[in-house]
Amino acid sequence: MKRQAVIDFSAPSVDVARRLIGAVLQVDGVGGRIVETEAYDADDPASHSFGGPSTRNATMFGPPGHAYVYRSYGIHWCLNFVCREAGHGAGVLIRALEPTDGLDRMRERRGLDDVRLLCSGPGRVAQALGITRSHDGMRLDRPPFHLRPPALPPGVLTGVRIGISKARDVPWRFGLSGSSFVSRRFS
DNA sequence: CTTTCGATGATCT
DNA sequence: GATCATCGAAAGG
Fold it and tell me: Which residue among A50, A63, A77, A184 is buried most deeply as judged by most CB within 10 Å?
């Protein structure tokens, strides 16, 4: 019996973000290949965890390998994976998927047909997968979550993070090389 | 193709 | 009162 490969979430968020590219993420069987991620860390002014624990970011300071879900601009939900050890405050934002499973369910939830627009952005990913605050704190290695690392290391592109006003020059955005499902092209 | 702007509510100062 | 890890529609080139 060959043991199922897993992601090591106790690693720095930058490493986890890079290694997550190409992994398959499903929630209740709906999901796809992760094609875009961003890393956030405790010493990072752009991170929710910068400045220490609070009500919103509490999960970021919990054990690694759990989901951190927050509300963005009062409208959208965004999904993160907690990294490092409990108390540290690091995470990876899941920014885009290439849809592979449950396309009809995603189209229902998103209210549109174009595959390119189903999961190309963090708010879109959460809506397509049915992620809400109820998923905050859940383990990623148990249902409804399912996560499978790529069989082979894919080509990964690097860039600066999107939509932040602090630490804009930090190159902690990662994308699957050649993917047309990223939220924005890599320069 | 690009830029701009409103929506909408929790969080923080 | 200001900011915000966004999205989608609208307007402009």
Answer: A77
Query: Distance between alpha carbon A73 and the CA centroid of its chain, in Å?
Result: 18
In 3-state terms, what secondary structure has residue A167? coil
User: Where does residue A51 rank: exposed (0-12), middle (13-18), buried (19+ CB within 10 A)?
Assistant: exposed
User: From CA A50, how far away is CA A148, in angstroms rounded?
Assistant: 30
Of residues 7 to 46 in chain A, which lie within 7 A of strand B by their beta carbon?
none
**What digits encode the pLDDT tens for the residues A83-111?**
999 999 999 999 999 999 999 999 999 99
Identify the pLDDT of residue A5: 81
Q: Which nucleotides of B are covered by protein (CB under 7 A)?
A: 7-13
The whole-angstrom separation of Cα A158 and Cα A40 is 14
Which residue's structure tokens are 């690097």? A158
Cβ–Cβ < 8 Å for A44, A167:
yes
User: What DSSP element (H or E) covers A124?
Assistant: helix A122-129
| Backbone torsion region of residue A30, taken as left when φ is above 0, otherwise alpha when ψ lies between -120 and 50, otherwise beta | beta
